[in-house]
Amino acid sequence: MSRHYQPYLKEVLIDEESLQARIAQLGAAISEDYAGCRDLILICVLKGGVMFLADLTRHIDVPHEIDFMAVSSYGKGARQSSKTIRIDMDLSANLSGKHVLIVEDIIDSGHTLDFVLPMLSARAPASLRLCTLLNKQSRREVEIPVDYIGFEIEDRFVFGYGLDLDEKFRNLPFIGVVDLDALRENPL
Q1: What is the pLDDT of residues 42-91, one digit of tens each?
Q2: Catalytic pick among 67, 90, 108, 181
Q3: Of 144, 134, 129, whose CA–CA distance to 34 is shortest?
Q4: Which of 75, 107, 114, 165 is the most exposed, having the fewest neighbouring CB atoms within 10 Å of its CB?
Q5: 108 an active-site residue?
Q6: Rounded to two decimals, what is the model's pTM?
Q7: Residue 186 CB neighbour total at 10 angstroms
Q8: Bridging pattern class, strands 127-135 and 99-107
Q9: Cα–Cα distance between 114 and 35 in angstroms, integer?
Q10: What is the mean pLDDT of residues 120-132?
């Protein structure tokens, strides 16, 4: 793997082995909770949730569909949510009567999901639950009910494993903390 990320990496927060072990546990819990369900659909919030969804879906033994939606509140180079939420790509699936599980990479302020949850709820799913890989509770401005949490993390700017640093480095197999001083000195 290219080491172009190295100057921006302050430390590895969650290594690949820990990520994969926790994702397997989440998949087992979801499989147990939805045992017997015939109409489960996982909704991946793009772009950050793709890697998490790809690994998570392999650990869920309940038959399920997947669909995608792109929602943005951060622009390129932004370090905080703008609180202005935009749907860049909507779902193709009909959610009526289905058990919906939203798969998110990270929940920070909560504004994005505060916008998305009522919108999806209005589409009459049988149930609507939320799974996030990372939860930054300390940054929460809007309370969001989270059903499955991979890791609780402190308020640190992270990248890798789907999370980007100015749209780059999503392909890293671990989650790292950004060295903000290095990023200021040598912007991407």
Answers
A1: 999 889 999 999 999 999 999 999 999 998 775 555 555 556 788 888 89
A2: 108
A3: 129
A4: 75
A5: yes
A6: 0.90
A7: 10
A8: parallel
A9: 28
A10: 97
Q: Quote the mean pLDDT of the chain.
A: 92
Contact 93, 39 (CB under 8 A): no
- With tokens 């920070």, the residue in question is 108
State the Cα–Cα distance between residues 68 and 70, nearest whole angstrom: 7
User: What does the CA dihedral 32, 38, 42, 43 come to, rounded to 10 degrees?
Assistant: -140
User: Which CATH number describes the domain made up of 6-25+38-72+83-185?
Assistant: 3.40.50.2020
Q: Is residue 28 classed as helix, strand or coil in its secondary structure?
A: helix
Which 3 state secondary structure label does DSSP give 83? coil
- What is the DSSP track for 143-157? ----SEEEEE--S--
**What does the block give as tokens for 186?**
């040598």
- pLDDT of 62 reads 96
**pLDDT of 117 higher than 70:** yes
